[in-house]
Each structure stands twice: as C-alpha cells, then as structure tokens.
Amino acid sequence: MSNEIWVFAEQREGKVRKVTFELLSAGAEFSKMSNQAVGAVLLGNGLQEAVKSLTPFADKIYLMDDPALASYTSDAYLIQMAPLIKEHQPSVLLGGTTSTGKDLFPRLSMHLQTGYAPDCTDLRMEENGKLVAKRPLYGGKVFAEMAFSEARPQMATVRNNTFLVNEHLKKSAQVISISSHTDPAVLKKKIVGLEKSAGTKLDITEAEIVVAAGRGIKAPENFKIMEELADVLNASVGTTRATVDEGWRDLKDQIGKSGKNISAKLYMAFGISGAIHHILGIGTCKTVVAVDTDPNALIFNYADYGIVGDLFQIVPALTEALKKALAADN
Amino acid sequence: MGLPLSPNASLLTGSDSLEVEMEIYVLVKQVPDPEAIVKVKSDSELEIENKYFTNFFDEIAIEAGLKLREKFGGKVTVLTVDNKKVDALRRGIAMGADDAIQITDPALEGSDQFAIAKALAAYLKDKPFDLILAGRQAMDDDAGIVGPAVAEVLGIPHVNTIIGLEVDDPKKEVRVMREVESGKEILSCSLPALFTCQKGLNNPRIPQVMNVMKAMKTQMKKVDLAALGLSAVDVGGQAVKIKVQKYLPPPKRPPVKMIKEDFPDNVKTLVKLLKEEAKVI
C-alpha cells in the first residue's frame, strides 16, 4: 500500500479551484505528521496552466489530459480515476464540497467500497494515519466526528474556505502523466450546453466574503446597493429563501437549508430576520455581521456584530466607508 | 388522478409513440422537520424532537415522477428503507404514487448510507425501471450519498441536483439541467438513469384530503433482506464504512457586540471593528 494523501484537483476551463489549494495545504500539514507524500489528481484537457499552479503545492501530480475529460461527467472521471486509485492505493482522497465533488465522490466511494464523509467542516489526522472528519448533521444543528473503517482511501469532501491556502509551500511536484483514452461511446451522458451565470462573481460557497439581503430589501431592483457593496469587498451576493421564492433572486444565491451552506470569512446579513433555515446555512462562517430594523430579530443571536438600523441607510454608507478604508491600505 | 394501467401496455411501447409508459421509482425518507430540535445527548446519542416530515427534496422527486406519469403514462412507486417510519411512503401515495414499498429488516439497524444504497439497489435490480428519482440529500444526515451510490451498484448513469428535466424519448434519452458553480449545465443522459432533485425543479403538489385518507389506509408492501438476496453481513453495523465517533454541539459564537452609536458613526465603528478586531477585511 502506498502512503499518499491525494487531493482531487478540481478545475474548470483549465483553472484550478481555490478549494484544491486549501486541501493541498491541509494535506501538507497531515503529511508532516504521517510522513506521506501529497498527490494532486488532475483530470481535464489542456492543463499546462493547471499543472503550473499546482506544482508548488504537491509532491506529485497525477495528470490525465484527454479531450474526453474536458468537462466533468461522473462517467468519464470514474472510468479514469478508479483504476488509478486501485493501483496506487492512497490512504486519503479529498475533494471540495462543490457541484463536482458532491457528484463524483459518493459514486466513486461506492465503486471503491470505501468510506466517504461528505461536506466536512474540519479534518484532522491522527498519528496512525487515520482521518477524523468533522461534519454537520441536521443542517448544522449538531456536528459529528466521523471515523473510517479499514477500507482505503478514506474519502472526504470539504467545504470551501475550511482551510487556509498556505502560500509558503515551495514544493516542486513530480508530474506523472497517465495516458488516458476514454472511448466516448461508453459514456452514458454528455454535456450539451452550459448557461453561464452573468457577471464574474464567485459562487457564494466559494467567496471569502458574502453580503446578503432578505425580504427587508423590499424589491428586486434594490439589490443594486448590495452589488455595489459586494464590488468594494470583492464579495458575492447571497440571499434568503423568501426572496428566491418571490422570484427576486436566483436559487443559486440562496443561503440556508434548502439552498447552500457557506463558510465565508465574513458574512454580512442585511434585512434578514434570521429564520432557522437561513441560520443553518451560515453556521461555519467566521465573522457574522447583522443589520436589521428589528432589535429583536433572531439573526442578532447568531452574529458577532450587530447594528439596529435601516439597510437603505447603512448599506450605501458602508460601501463608501469601505471604499475609503480599503483605499487607505493600498 | 393516475390512469388505470393496462397490464399489456408495455407491449405497445414505441420510441415515437406518446403511449409509452414510464416505470419510475422514487427513493424517499422521513426526516426530522427543519424546525425540530436536535441536540447532543451524549457522545454517541442525539435527542431528536418527534417532529418528522417527508424530506423536502424527496417531495420534489415524487412530483417530478408524477408529472412524467401524467405525460407518458406508466407507474410511480415510492420506496424507503426504514424499520419504523413509513410516513414518507404515505405522503407519496397521498400525492398520487401508485405503489409503496418498505424495505425493512432488523439487521438493517445501524446501516450507513452505503448499506442503504445496497438494499435499495438489490430491490431495484430486477425491476423494469426507466427512471429512478431521489432528493438531492436527506435533511438528516445531509450526505447525498444514497442516490449516486444506488446508480453505481445498478450500473446506470446519475446526475445530481437537477433543476430541469426534458424527456426526449421516455425509453431512451432525457436532457437534464443542473446547477454548477459557473452557471447551469445541460446534459443529455441515456435511460435508465437516476437523478437527484433540487429545489427549482418543480413545486410539489399538496395532496387532496381524500388522497390523504386513502394513503392512511394503504398497506405498504414490506420487503426484507432475505427477499432481496442480502444477508445481515451486507448491511447494518458490521458493514459500516464510516461511523460517528462522537457527536458535538455546533460551535458557539461569542455574544453579539451591538454597535449602538447613531448613524453614521455606527458604520464607521463597524468598519474599524472588521479591520482591527475581526481582521477580515
């Protein structure tokens, strides 16, 4: 059995996602304790840039560059990854809690007959190389530390922004190219289209800063002030179930139980009363700011900083104040 | 509601005929209501308020199945693995499903998601299904494993968290839309297949009172492990690949700091705190 910690290096259009670097950084910490090499598994097509970006973060890059892998489908990725894992038998395989990770990992773990802990909010490795995965249950009302059976690899997907990227890693990964020829005829599904989201903002699960407004914003066009605030902070704009159900905002931006869980470094909620559905989605955010006109709003119980006030007054003023404060830094 | 099925109807299927009937299975689960109190009782035990409902995403899956049946004819069967709770099956029947199956066996106690998936796949493997639908995840373990794992055991394709479904050929091919971080992806997928359903796919119907009454009286078909060709070692505590080592309460946030100054000083203070105290900007 090899003794490697693997990270599924997720890329879109040749660009490796931030969560991959977060996991490689965590993997580097684990490797110090357990003396294991850190491997990145990279699948796709046209991956020179991706390889370059991964090189300082991993000891090895297992590379499969194949036109059939250009876009993710579980079929194509599983056909390539399963034999590679069986051959090298890594002790750990990590991925991000992303649309790809959540699609691939459960199926791959069943295929490999090994354990998989989804959507973890922390991981630690014990000296014997055993992974302990912490994950929320019941929408985050409780957490559980999960232990794996003897089967390997120990698989987990981890929420974006759980680990910090260690920019000081100066590894120089050895690239192991694996010739991969996927016969398109065996694939049972294929991507026939992509409707790209407007704008360039990160998904709310990936953004380090998320600002959100709920029904308190009164009308869909008023989200303009949220977008302006977000632009200053390089943040993404989230929202609540109520505004999505009203058709004011897209479902992809909904935070909470029937939407997405976020682990932002900074989350700011404006005009959000704090229904349990919403609160459950922000439980692992580092710093939470709440602004609401109602001094008894539940959201204040879950915030670090609170202001009782009118978002229509606070948001534009905050945008201006942040512009000045951040300009002073540069 | 559902049209009576002719036993020979499946013989009439042709790829360009709308008379084709779709055999659809929906995987469902009864889970604690989002409002239910869930607390850590000890390292190995939770206290869960007795307030259950049919998993929100499973209702979307049931609705998707019913809509397809309305269009193409066929049959919708709801299926659960649970030794006690069958209300999700009743909900399925009340909404209009034709049949309800409960996989139940004492040996299933302590099963993880992989064992549940094995049991479901064992039931489904000989069935003439065109489509299997499930919720995006169950709102208890929030794992999202069972759907894709069932597809893996059955050797059929799966697509997760679909928000759109167009049937091009009810026996051969569908197009589904799913959310990805950069937008919405459209995939064509051959049938049979398994899809997990996400909010946005449809709005589940509210069952009519008459149907709720009917569902209360419906006898669920029970299936045990022996009938599935599985034994106790395949499932339950012995088969677990992953298990809870310790339950923990959610991390607690320190008490909120309310900024009580008047506008605009409160905004200035907030910026200062975010910069100097929280150090997040």
The beta-strand count of chain B equals: 15
The Cα radius of gyration of chain A reads 21 Å
Strand order of the largest sheet of chain A: 7-11-6-1-4-5-12
CATH superfamily of the largest domain in chain B: HUPs
Number of separate structural domains of chain B: 2
Given as residue ranges, the uncertain stretches of chain A (5+ residues, pLDDT < 50) are none
Classified in CATH, the superfamily of the largest domain in chain A is HUPs
Level of helix content of chain A?
Answer: 25-40%
- What CATH architecture label of the largest domain in chain B applies? 3-Layer(aba) Sandwich
Share of helix of chain B, binned: 25-40%
Q: How many helices of chain A in DSSP terms?
A: 8
CATH class designation of the largest domain in chain A: Alpha Beta
| Beginning-to-end CA distance, first to last residue of chain A | 51 Å
CATH topology of the largest domain in chain A: Rossmann fold
Could you give the order of the helices and strands of chain A?
EEEHEHEHEHEEEEEEEEHEHEHEEH
Q: Which fold name fills CATH's third level, the topology of the largest domain in chain B?
A: Rossmann fold
What is the element layout, followed by pairings?
The complex is a heterodimer of chains A (330) and B (281).
Chain A (H helix, E strand, L loop, with lengths): L3 E6 L1 E2 L2 E2 L1 H17 L2 E8 L3 H7 L5 E6 L8 H15 L3 E5 L2 H14 L3 E5 L1 E4 L5 E7 L4 E7 L5 E5 L15 E4 L11 E8 L12 E5 L9 H11 L2 E4 L1 H5 L20 E5 L5 H4 L7 E6 L12 E4 L2 H19 L1
Parallel strand pairs in A: 1-4, 1-6, 4-5, 5-12, 6-11, 7-11, 14-15, 14-16, 16-17, 17-18
Antiparallel strand pairs in A: 2-3, 8-9, 9-10
Helix pairs in contact in A: 3-4, 5-8
Chain B lengths: L21 E6 L2 E3 L5 E5 L2 E4 L3 E3 L1 H17 L1 E8 L5 H9 L3 E5 L9 H12 L6 E5 L10 H9 L3 E12 L3 E8 L2 E8 L2 E5 L11 H9 L3 E3 L1 H4 L13 E7 L8 E2 L6 H13 L4
